[in-house]
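Can you make up a protein sequence with its backbone structure tokens?

===
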Amino acid sequence: MGKYVVSPATHQTDCGRFRASFSVHRSQGNGSYSRVFRFDKTFASREAARLFAVTQGWLETCIPHPSTC
């Protein structure tokens, strides 16, 4: 997604539902940025969890965030 690599993932819970997560990676020059996002929300299907992870990854990389100190 632009200058970032977003990798969605799903994980099956003990009760048979699915959790979503994604990782964001960016390399620029000598530095790199990696972050993993995991969500508590569960989904009835793997596809629903994957779609949620893809959407959240898109939002994380496309919407400008306020600078932090």
